[in-house]
Each structure stands twice: as C-alpha cells, then as structure tokens.
Amino acid sequence: MSVNQERYHTFVILLEQLRSQAATHQTDAQQLRQHLLSLQEFFRQQILPLAEEKIRELSYKTEMSKQLRLLEIDVMFLQGARQAATAVDRLKTISDRLTIIIEYCQTILQSEAPEK
C-alpha cells in the first residue's frame, strides 16, 4: 500500500468513526464538533499535500474540501437545534455528507489500486 493509499485509508476510518458517532443520535454537538475539527486538521495536513497523479484526484480533493466546510456548517446548525426532531434531521444530513466524502476517498483508492 502506497503512502497516499495509507493516508486515504486512515482518513476513511476517521470519517466512518464520525459517521458512526452521528448515527447514534446520542452524540453531544460539541463532541461532534471537536471530532470534526481533528478530521479537518488531518485532511489539511495529510491529504491536501499529497501529489495528484491525475487531475481527477484534484477534483475529488476539491469536492472533499467543500464537503468538509459544509459539514462544519451542518454541525453549527446541529448545535443550534432546539427540538429533538430537528437535531435528528441535522444528524442525518451530517451522516449523508460523511458518506459522500467516504465515497470520494474510496473512488480515489480504487483508482490508485494496482492493476492485477
């Protein structure tokens, strides 16, 4: 496994942990925000600096960056939710957005996988 693949794989694991945390509906919005901040830091330090072998990878990284910024807004909306139903809807949106980012990572991992 290349260094790029290892970093994307680690990023996927972190994304899945956050998605699992959001799916429990028992999560504290502040705790979710802290996890998101560490996830964004990992993305900035470990994923963004990776050299793109294909222009397509750059497009996916751009989209992931956008989704992470939107995720931050979703978490802010979750923190402002006053009703339980609204909080559940926000958590669903967060989970869906995380799924999108995971799919982008998996697409990059598949494109980097050596041909058999």
Automatic annotation (TrEMBL):
InterPro entries the UniProt entry points to: PatD-like
UniProt name for this protein: Heterocyst frequency control protein PatD
